[in-house]
Amino acid sequence: MSSPKQVNAPNAPSSLDIFSPNLFKGKVVFATGGGSGIGKHVVETMMRHGVDAVIIGRKTDRLTQAANELEAATGRKCIPATADVRDPKSIQAAAKLAVDKLGRIDFVICGAAGNFLAPLSHLSENAFKTVMEIDTLGTFNTFKATIPYVRQTHGAYIHFSATLHYQGSVYQAHVSAAKAGVDALSNVIAIEEGPYGVRSNVIAPGPIGGTPGMDRLSSLDDPSARKIRIPLGRMGEKADIANAAVFLFSNGAAHVTGQILVVDGGAQHTYSGMGVFPYPESVLEFEKIKKLVPRL
Ligand code: COA
Questions:
Q1: Which residues, in sequence order, are bridge partners of residue 29?
Q2: pLDDT at residue number 74
Q3: Is the CB of residue 173 below 6 angstroms from any atom belonging to ligand 1?
Q4: What does the domain layout of the chain look like in residue ranges?
Q5: Whose CA is nearest to atom 20 of ligand 1?
Q6: InterPro entries per the record (predicted)?
Q7: Whether residue 124 has its Cβ less than 6 Å from ligand 1
Q8: Which of 42, 58, 87, 116 for a ligand 1 pocket mutation test, highest count of atoms within 8 Å of Cβ?
Q9: What fold characterizes domain 23-292?
Q10: What are the tens digits of pLDDT across the range 20-36?
Q11: Model pTM?
């Protein structure tokens, strides 16, 4: 008798096949990290449901190009605001620009993040601090800059986190510590801002194809869904994260706050740490692994 075959999850559907096209009409999203990667895809998806957007990033040229692309793809307004989430003044100026140009802020995506792969023994003090500042302090700064406006609209926050810190993950001490802080901040925002009508939730993506994180692993012999051990059989797609974000910002999630929505095909329950790396060789033979993965 032949063995049963893995049944893969269907590909992520278009959010327009699930949610109303006018879901976010008249609303404004403010997205750090919205100019590239998963953040840009989430913003584009929300714009297809009627939202206007302000995207925040450090590189003006790249951001302006992204804003033009988003407008052309969706017919909605998208304003680029150059700012560094580590600099409270620049993020406050971006929030003011959003309100000056678009009149309101309903939704905030805290998506700016920094990541690279390195064991603790190879992390300088500044390397650790840099990721803590972008992810954790950046989330705090973004919250502080936007909350006066979000209270007015009874809006909502989504923070992009990770599943790395649920257990020890090699090469990810800095990111694990930073994302644990992000999760904790979201919980407190939920309880302190809930009485003002503001919700706060976290999306924790697993491995998502076509992102810098997965690209970095592409030179390993088998960085596949099978090697990472994803029960639903396929790698995550940016659209999986976008669909989760549309749901969490919609009134369908009106009674959902202080939650972490893991979108990883069940992977968090099957792998320990960065499951693609052999253990303990990943620790004992870092220099060898570094040659296999040149961008480490
Ligand atoms: N291994 C070890 N240390 C590293 C590193 C690596 N692969 N990459 C960066 N660092 C260290 C730097 O050496 C520096 O420390 P030092 O001053 O002691 O030398 C510190 O981290 C800050 O790096 P720097 O590049 O100066 O900071 P930055 O603010 O310009 O950028 C990042 C920080 C994290 C955004 C940058 O490293 C980066 O571009 N990473 C890849 C892209 C990315 O993170 N995308 C997000 C995906 S979630």
A1: 53, 107
A2: 98
A3: no
A4: 23-292
A5: 127
A6: DECR2-like, NAD(P)-bd_dom_sf, SDR_fam
A7: yes
A8: 116
A9: Rossmann fold (3.40.50)
A10: 999 999 999 999 999 99
A11: 0.95
Does residue 31 contact residue 54 with C-beta atoms inside 8 Å? yes
Expressed in angstroms and rounded, the spacing between residue 130 Cα and the centre of ligand 1 is 7
83 Cβ contact partners less than 8 Å away, ≥ 6 residues apart: 32, 56, 57, 58, 90, 91, 93, 94
Residue 273 has a pLDDT of: 63
Q: What integer pLDDT is reported at residue 123 of this predicted model?
A: 97
- What is the per-residue pLDDT across 51-68, written as a single tens digit (0 to 9) for each? 999 999 999 999 999 999
> Closest Cα partner for 107 from 154, 140, 156, 146?
156
pLDDT at residue 222, as a whole number:
73
Residue type at position 188 = V
Distance 114 CA to ligand 1 centre (A): 7
Ligand 1 pocket test target in 41, 126, 164 with most atoms within 8 Å of CB: 126
- How far the first Cα of the chain sits from its last, in Å, is 44
Torsion sign over Cα 280, 283, 287, 293: positive
